[in-house]
Amino acid sequence: MRLSTFLGLIATLAVAVDAKPLRRATKHVVHEEKPAARRNWFKTSRLHQSKILPVRIGLTQKNLDRAEEFIYGVSHPDSDSYGKHWSPEKVVDMFSPKQQSIDLVMEWLEAEGIQPGRAKLSSSKTWISLNATVAEVERLLKTQYHVYKHDTLGHHHVACDKYHVPDHLVDHIDLITPTVHFDQRLGHDRTNKKVPLSEDQDNELRKRMLQRRQIPEHGILGSPNSGFGPKQGATITNALVSLAECDQMITPACLRALYATPPGTLAASNNTLGIVEYTPQAFLQKDLDIFFEQFAPPLVGQAPIVNLVDNGVLQTENQSFNFNGESALDLEFAMALIYPQRATLYQVGDLVQGASFNNFLDSVDASYCTFEGGNSADPNVDSPYPSSVGCGGFAATKVISTSYGYNEADLGARYEQRQCNEYMKLGLMGVTTVYSSGDYGVAGNGGQCIDPLTLAFNNGTDGIFNPSFPGSCPYVTSVGATQILNGSSVRTPESACQDVIFSGGGFSNVFAMPDYQKSAVDAYFANSAPPYGAERFNNSRAVRGFPDVSANGANYLTAVNDKFSLSFGASASAPVFASLISLINEKRLAAGKGPVGFINPTLYANPQVLNDVRNGNNPGCGTDGFSAVEGWDPLTGLGTPNYPAMEALFLSLP
Ligand SMILES: *[C@@H]1O[C@H](CO)[C@@H](O)[C@H](O)[C@H]1NC(C)=O
Ligand SMILES: *[C@@H]1O[C@H](CO)[C@@H](O)[C@H](O)[C@H]1NC(C)=O
Ligand SMILES: *[C@@H]1O[C@H](CO)[C@@H](O)[C@H](O)[C@H]1NC(C)=O
Ligand SMILES: *[C@@H]1O[C@H](CO)[C@@H](O)[C@H](O)[C@H]1NC(C)=O
Ligand SMILES: *[C@@H]1O[C@H](CO)[C@@H](O)[C@H](O)[C@H]1NC(C)=O
Ligand SMILES: *[C@@H]1O[C@H](CO)[C@@H](O)[C@H](O)[C@H]1NC(C)=O
Known about the structure:
By secondary structure, the chain is of the alpha/beta class. It is built from 16 helices and 26 strands.
């Protein structure tokens, strides 16, 4: 259903609220609570009892305990079934919830007065959806819904503080939305916005925000203040640079020289690189053309293939670095590096609500809806979010790069685990999911850290390190940022990025350490243990460390709003790394092989295909953060790509 219908909070439904008496005394337990960190959202009014909520109940899926085994089966270089990726049908069969889970949840709904027929099971069987009044949902979940308001930005959001389920259902339900998750874009529209800013004012504001580490707009992907986008540096009037100047300005030629990358080929014309952008972030063709004229003349006039997801729009109303910088950076460099291969842009979300990662996942994960139901599947059931082209409406490209992220503490563990498992499924189906690791060192978006007592975000002068998500999900490839030191050349080893931004990295508070990185992380602690303990990060050596790899993230000469300026951020590193993987896929396809899919197990087993980075830090939270050392480290991962070695390795695999 279109949430905007709900959004206006205009829908009302006269439903007789006749609670049937429960058949047995049921004990209810708290299932999820609003993350403590979200203290910048405060409660305003109760939501009216007659409003309609589009409820989605995420059922617990079976066989997830075997996820690592399955993913290694297709992606570990020692596996006999390396590269034998799964069909969407096999993914659905393997993970769809047990019938018992479906039955128990349906029984519960009926016992609570939801007539059979109102609750619908998605064809992937992983979600039960229903439209219910606030009164019904409040009774069902023993909760209260409020409109929350963001303390500094004034945005609204509909949520509850916590909710309950009967204790016999705890193991059958992953999560229920809309409830405590502040990335579900269920709010009023963005009223009370800041007054319009001129570009100069906008840049000035951004600079001040960086300086003062003002609280960014967590949970609003693509918004100009999300804290995750690239950071802008000096305006450049003469963009004609030589390789000798790569320490001052990064061009596609610098990246090719750094990573020994050849131009692309067109052996498999259907192989495109996926780049995800969240509205209102948008590219402007004239910016791409200014860039291409200089660095990739055959591309002048060429746009990416555009997939508009969830009513995605390429807005042109507001144009400034904050609205165009990320898209320009991602597309200009990726398109130049992979040419003549093409890029596919997934432009996600409308102007009113934007979108969350789940909307993107819904749109590309065919296993959500095309299996069994096929095209006749009710798109409203499978994808309750606004979607003209609904669930599974777009093919997933074989490599997908996203330079947006949350703090892990922004969202609940159950929510993140469920989403992370979707990246695992994409890996099983042969998709490489690449995310940037963040730009604030060991701190979170906007430089915030976590107060040890309240677990709320603080101003970043002290506190617990604040890892990013989805970079901390073990089934994505997380990319950190490096730089060429001033005075160094493309032949000198790079350092962790310390120019304008610090490479995001650290250890998860949610995800266990995947087996593939165990020896690398053990070696890190054995040889280079940082001088901090559990008061700063989970040093149990039992949790996921990130990033996995890195690539240059400083001084990108980007054409934005008709002129060249420098961009900084792991935002740049992710699409560059993804571009190289797409080039390798092209070679594999030309050799009659499949795409590489999930690459982490192969990379950790073959660290020699990456250039180890051993210099630099990623400060934050009043510390120097971690140090780049020999071997894997939590700021540059295994290192930057050595393209010829990486290509040879992946081509040697079946
Ligand atoms: C909920 O309501 C919307 C809008 O009326 C409708 O499109 C959708 O199919 C409904 N969903 C369910 C599960 O009934
Ligand atoms: C552009 O900015 C103005 C003023 O902040 C705002 O009202 C409008 O919604 C914005 N448009 C987009 C597409 O973000
Ligand atoms: C590209 O995809 C189309 C449609 O799926 C298919 O017919 C065609 O053979 C593909 N081309 C190549 C070169 O793989
Ligand atoms: C940050 O917070 C700490 C503790 O509340 C306070 O002492 C410090 O002055 C603050 N620093 C800034 C720059 O706001
Ligand atoms: C790089 O080094 C040169 C010479 O030492 C200096 O003039 C220049 O300001 C430095 N540039 C940056 C960006 O630090
Ligand atoms: C660190 O992670 C381990 C493994 O998940 C967990 O058992 C432990 O409680 C965590 N420690 C802290 C301080 O959160």
